[in-house]
Write a structure and sequence with these properties.
Number of helices: 8
Bound molecules: zinc ion
Radius of gyration: 23 Å
Helix content: 40-55%
Structural class: alpha+beta
Number of strands: 10
Number of domains: 3
CATH architecture of the largest domain: Orthogonal Bundle
Length: about 300
């Protein structure tokens, strides 16, 4: 919502004020008020204002430090995923953990500073994946939480200058644990119909982020990057479905991606190939691939020049 509402004094009762909030292109709203809130603000170079509303307590320093991290997060997302279209965003202390809304988030902020940064980054990125790209998060939770988690760890890698080759290694591990278990379920499961809430969490957040990372492996990370911006520009303020996202990536890469989307989102099949052996044959190297899993006897040779 616009933090500068139009104020109107009620004539019948001069002790009361009426506040009007107006917001365009939003599909949800949240509202917070507390007479003891401290209100601080900073802005991006492009003029977008970030508001911070929090209690006056021992966490004041964390809230101050958070400002520059939040600015960098928004700048990174603007540059790499598409321009945040609203004039302001509010990070408000309250709620239960962290929850996303258009133009604001409610965060408890009771943990460590790193935790506060991580939750702020995650919830802010929901402005892109949920707020602006309004995917149905019950049906396609992986396009919402998964894409958000993917960008979250990319941004955290950037903020802390970690230069980790795969910032999603924890997400891979978590997905892999479930993929090897008997309680795995397809990514296409409706959020309300998982047998285990735990598997919903792993699928939506972790397998969803692995999906995007693996897509980058197939089409190339640079193509994925330009595709994500194209996806944002094409589908902002709309309600994209998996086929809409697939079409963007197919056009961007020139590849047919049905097989990947179907196998990764509609089944619990996993990657099942491995290198079974490597042989040196003069100027050539012969690599033996093995298809593990259901057809475990399938082997194929590939020769390549050294
Ligand atoms: Zn989330």
């Amino acid at each position: 919502m616009d933090m500068r509402p139009k104020r109107k004094t009620e004539k019948r009762n001069s002790n009361k004020l009426k506040w009007h909030f107006k917001a365009e292109n939003v599909h949800d709203f949240a509202w917070a008020a507390d007479p003891f809130f401290i209100h601080e603000q900073t802005s991006l170079e492009n003029g977008t204002i970030l508001h911070f509303l929090h209690k006056n307590d021992s966490l004041n320093d964390n809230w101050k430090r958070l400002q520059s991290y939040a600015v960098k997060c928004f700048e990174y997302m603007n540059e790499n995923y598409g321009e945040y279209p609203y004039k302001q965003y509010s990070i408000i202390q309250g709620g239960d953990g962290g929850m996303e809304y258009p133009m604001c988030t409610l965060i408890t902020a009771e943990g460590s500073f790193k935790g506060l940064v991580s939750v702020t980054v995650h919830e802010s990125i929901h402005s892109w994946f949920q707020g602006i790209l309004g995917t149905n998060e019950s049906k396609y939770e992986w396009m919402d939480e998964g894409f958000c988690t993917y960008a979250q760890y990319e941004v955290l890698n950037y903020l802390y200058k970690k230069n980790v080759l795969n910032p999603l290694y924890r997400q891979y591990k978590s997905y892999s644990n479930v993929a090897k278990s008997s309680y795995k379920e397809p990514l296409s499961t409706h959020a309300d119909f998982y047998n285990l809430n735990y598997v919903y969490g792993v699928n939506a957040y972790n397998k969803g982020s692995v999906f995007l990372h693996q897509l980058g492996y197939i089409i190339g990370s640079e193509v994925l990057k330009t595709g994500m911006k194209k996806y944002f520009e094409t589908w902002k303020f709309k309600h994209p479905k998996p086929t809409d996202f697939k079409r963007i990536m197919e056009l961007e890469s020139g590849l047919e991606l049905d097989w990947y989307f179907e196998q990764f989102t509609q089944t619990t099949n996993t990657i099942d190939y491995a290198i079974a052996g490597v042989k040196s044959l003069g100027e050539k190297t012969q690599i033996l691939f093995q298809k593990k899993g259901k057809n475990s006897n399938a082997f194929r040779y590939l020769s390549c020049h050294q």
